[in-house]
Amino acid sequence: MARAKAAAAGVNPKAKASAKYSAFGLISRGATNTSWPRVWRDVPLKKTYDVVIVGGGVHGLACAYYLAANHGITNVAVLDKADLGSGGSGRNTAIVRSNYLTPEGVAFYDRSLDLYNTMAVDLNINVMFSRRGHMTLAHTDSALRTMRWRAEVNKLQDIDSSVIDPSEVKKLAPSLDVSDHARYPIVGALYHPPGGTIRHDAVVWGYARAADHHGVEMHQKTEVLDIVVEGGTGPEGKGAGGKVTGVRTSRGDISAPIVINCTAGWATLISDMAGVSLPISTRPLQAAVTEPVKVFLPTVVVSGSLHVYVSQTDRGELVFGASVDPFNTYNIRGSLEFTEELAGHVLELMPGISRMRLLRQWSGLCDMTPDYSPVMGITPVDGFLCDVGWGTYGFKAGPVSGEQMAAAIATGQTPTLIEPFSLSRFAKGDLVGEKGAAAVGH
Amino acid sequence: MTRNRRLAPQIGEVINRSAPLGFTWNGKPLTGFVGDTIASALVANDVRVVSRSMKYHRPRGYMTNDFWDPNAFMQVGDDPNVRSAHRLLEGGMAIEAQNVWPSLDRDIKAANGLVKRFLSAGFYYKTFIRPQTLWPAYEKVLATFAPGGTVDLDTPHGYYDKRYAHPDVVVAGGGPAGMAAAIAAAQSGAQVMLVEHAHVLGGHLRWGSIADRALADELAAEVHGAGVEVLTDSTVTGRYDDNWTAIVQRSHPIAIERLIKARAKTLVVAAGLIERPYVFAGNDKPGVMTSGAVRRFVNVHSVRPGERAVVFSANADGDAAAADLERVGIRVARVVDARAGENVIEAHGNSRSVESVELADGSTVDCDLLVTAVGWTAPTSLLNMAGDRPSYHEQSARFFGSASIDDVLTTGGIAGDGSIDQLVEHGRLTGRLAAARAAVIGHQLQAATARAVEPANAEPAWPTDDRAPLDRHAHPELFRSSTHGIVDFSEDVSSKDLVSAANEGYDSVELLKRFTTATMGPAQGKLETVNTVAVLAEARGETIEQVGTTVWRPPYAPITLGALGGRVFEPVRVSSIQPWHEAHGATPILAGQWVRPEHYGDPMAEVRNTRTNVGVIDVTPLGKLDLRGPDVPKLLNQLYTNKWSKLAVGAVRYGLMCAEDGVVLDDGVTARLSDDHYMMTTTSSGAGSIWEWAESWLQTEHPDWRVHVTPVTTGFTSINVAGPKSRDLMQRLVTDIDLSPDSFSYMQVRSGTIADVAGCFMWRIGFTGELSYELHVPAGYGLHVWKRLLAEGVDLGVQPFGLEAQRIMRLEKGHFIVGQDTDGLTKAPTTGLANLIKLDKVDFAGKAELAWALDDDTAPVLVSLQPTDPRLVPDEACQIVRAGTNEILGRITSSLMSPTLNRSICLGQVLPHVAAAGTELTVVLVDGRRATARVMEHHAHYDPEGERLRV
């Protein structure tokens, strides 16, 4: 009983209680000048694991955690070619919401939001979930019609989401220009109070730490060079009909009956190693941040037609994101044009902040599928699973994806929530549709 | 009692003592001089504490006294985060300390310092976890710790601008080497732009000896004489692919700030070196400064940064600072020589100033100024952006570029050490090389550009780099003393924080940065990164080289959103007829980029007139793509779902475009004007995206196809003439086209002269359901043709109609609008146009998916609906549900009152099992009430057989 309770809190009952994060812990360690234990252990790479997860981002780490916490599968290694959370997990703009269009989308992201809601306690780390509300602006009548559609659907699904008029927009975000002489006047907005932002790094570290408490190993700077498959119909015995036996890494070979591809940006390259081809193209998505100023923007503001979303962190910086760039590349250098267009559009929305200065820009890679939905679950190679193709919205889905992938591995059955996302849908004409909701806005 | 800390007049000072400037500091009136920075004016007025630190609100004074000084951020009027050690003083400035409450001197949050030991870096991740309900309250408190100034949301946008430049050589940095490079490049015949971060050229010569300053003036004169374009108070802030450089020009006569985008053939990085602070206990006390800071105060602005100094020196600059202090009568109590193994252990003092310093030899020396000269950080940002990964050189204790990049060269301190003469000589060689390489690159560009004049001479040989590299002088590795101190002053992160974070497992540079936020402040690591790396290396027992650094990302220096945005070149689009619309009472509506007439007073009457007589509508925003080349049919077959190989010259065909997931992208008609010449129309909103879509297929999948796509949306004014009397009207304006129904039938196109305007084309299509001609006339003649149509048709009852009337008529006809009646999930079969999906074509976008979609009997179906109550017009987007439940069966996508039928009419998407004609459906109105509507047999509510448009 105590064990189950501790497991629910993400803490290994064998670990010292003092490792738990709390105000008391801060005070006692501060007073006695004792340091905290490592957030995750630094252990040697073993030769064999039950499960190898490729990619140490939110998806991979969540999967590892739920494998251990929910299913008792603890002989698990999470491999990352760089540091944990250095890919999309650390480059996104950390926005979460659940006001999606289709019942499948709502169910999926609502579960994700549930997990985010209780994450701080579940993982015993403050992920700084700021439920500040999420506002998608409409600049035209047709955009407003789409928002009303989403609101009407959400209303029937008990999701807190409604269309508000410009005066209400102004009340929620006084920095917005809601006058009708703006170049792109704001004619209304879809407002979703439960949406907000989360400290994305904390989510990464929280899952890693909790997984570590259960015995999962995190191996950074461990690049997967190849996936070993036997008996497949493709070259080198890879591909359909084959069976995974392990991976070759920059730090040595590992044998494992189950390998999960949880990468973004390089998902196709990793899958190619197993002889599994994915219908994914990789595009950059850019973001930027300003110097800090005193907090003035209390909600997340998204404008689909101006290709911009913006929120202000508790540190006072404005964080901006855009839509994916319209070309394929693995290059993550930012472009000047992005910052120019971004600034121009932000100032259309908030003309009063022209003197704020852009401090840093960066770019991340998005794996886009033809239907803007992920690829999850089994592949034609036995033991090789994927949780990839997350486009621009992987962060929002991290917890639920990990939970469901873990269930898929542990039970050998594909859970209902992720059934629509199977790789085989592309061969069966069973594409999912959340394009209208997922890809356009954050 | 305030002391005057201004020195007696000195040779080389930049202030004008006969031009005083009044300003206020936290409301208190003070005086400075023209030429002062805000910082020098404040220090001259005996201001020592100028800000409070972010987390512990510790009092801070100037430390580096330059653009990057982390303690120098101030609010000036409505301008937050002004770098006061860089910004020049102006008369009347209202300068205030930021982020203090109630005042700079008495700041409540300084109490955080008392509980500092509990607030180690990242403490917030470890607390406020339970109870969860309290977190929002904690969050509000945390948010009040956000550093920075205050944005006045009513700040007027102001005037910002941009400029494009195409210099041969851009030199980033106007110190001795940079100036020499610019001079040599210009003398070699190159067009040169020299960009200097500070307000005047000279670099470190400006705060050097009298001879240094004389040399700076001499070189500056030579720079101007050589015809170099000089930009001061400007920074090369980004280097992107192909030397696309972003330069922020902060001082501009008109613009608040200007972004210059320069395509440099070669870029010379002569950014100099940034002096690094030293980490030890008390290193953030007011009065602890770098040697450069002190020399700038003393030599440039003639102010006394203290009265009694201790100088901790590891290099000649530290020694020079000591000499400068003594020269102006500031007592140097002790020079602590790092080269002799001496060290600083801790600075002690009160809330206003350092008071004494404890040394490694056990002695304590009283002082109010502690100068550190412990070495430099090479600002390698621009090299990083060019793909270089600088490597650490232990003997000289700094990073150097490691790659050889053809079009990016380095000189000056970033490249190595030497005497001023050696640096200047290296600069000259670098400038010459840069110019020679620019000449080759220019030659290659000219030869590669199709329309350029052929280069007269042969391509010059690629100049090899035969510069003798600069030396790398030995320098002690000094990052941290035996005590812990602040590493990141902007973020209040100490070396102790870094060590404990590393021990906790955040032990790579990236993780450490994210966890502690070190290097993430306004200086973006220029002062902090190397110390951070050094502390981490120490904690891990590794070398700095092994630990590595973070990647410097653009921008190098922050740039205002105003300058990046510039003047917004997204003008509202209007057709050439717009003046007429405005003069005739049109109600405007914003449709995408366009402003168009919604109606001219009574849309219902406009519908009735068009259905009875003839109406004209301005449809210029319709997307138009001119397609030429022998392979146009291949492109059309790829983009549209139906077949295009056999479209005859003179014919028009409707087509539907789908994305690869089978979802409807766009629709429109395409006409074949002559053998190799087609005109495609897209929806108004698709004008840009379909052009991109076509180009994406041509450029990435079929580069071998000979097709040229030109967007001509605004090249033509488009007018639809609709109504039973439209042929009568057109006959009065057209002489060279036979309009008889046999000769020019439905879905045909003709080119010719309309209202005496040659080069027009027109086609017969029928969005409104009436006999109609869509005219496309050269844009400049649009208004003329429009006026002629109205003048010639008076007796026929011609009237203009707007978008609203058109929407009503198309809904009466049951035509769907892509994006309104379809959405991001609507596959082609839903629209009812399954017969336009030709699976026997070799390929087209969406084919595989549509093959399945055609067999899918669960997808929604687009149907016409009529509410039971003919007066009820449900809102568009109202949901259709199973009666008595919330189970969604579909939704209303279009809904209007029809003046022709005198009842409400709708289009909607519903699930197939409730799509049969005659089915009664439940509609949930926006206010929650429920109503019923009936599924109709045809999409068209009016003239389902289309008899009216084929006449």
Architecture overview:
The complex is a heterodimer of chains A (442) and B (951). Chain A has helices at 2-8, 23-32, 58-71, 88-91, 103-117, 119-123, 141-156, 166-172, 200-213, 267-273, 336-349, 394-411, 425-428, 435-439, and strands spanning 51-54, 76-79, 95-96, 134-138, 162-164, 188-192, 196-197, 217-219, 224-230, 243-249, 252-255, 258-261, 281-290, 300-303, 308-312, 318-321, 357-368, 375-378, 384-388. Chain A is an alpha/beta fold. In chain A, the strands form four sheets. Chain A has an eight-stranded mixed sheet. In chain A, strands 8-2-1-12-19-18 form a six-stranded mixed sheet, with helices on both faces. Chain A has a three-stranded antiparallel sheet with strand order 9-10-11, with no helix packed on it. In chain A, strand 18 and strand 19 form a beta hairpin. Chain A is globular, with a radius of gyration of 22 Å. With 951 residues, chain B is of the alpha+beta class. Chain B is built from 21 helices and 49 strands. In chain B, the strands form 13 sheets. Chain B has a six-stranded mixed sheet. In chain B, strands 44-47-46-45-48-49 form a six-stranded antiparallel barrel. In chain B, strand 13 (244-249) and strand 14 (258-263) form a beta hairpin. Chain B is elongated, with a radius of gyration of 37 Å. The model of chain B has no long low-confidence stretch (mean pLDDT 94). Strand 17 of chain A pairs antiparallel with strand 30 (559-560) of chain B, so a sheet runs across the interface.
Short description:
The complex is a heterodimer of chains A (442) and B (951). With 442 residues, chain A is α/β, with parallel strands linked by helices.
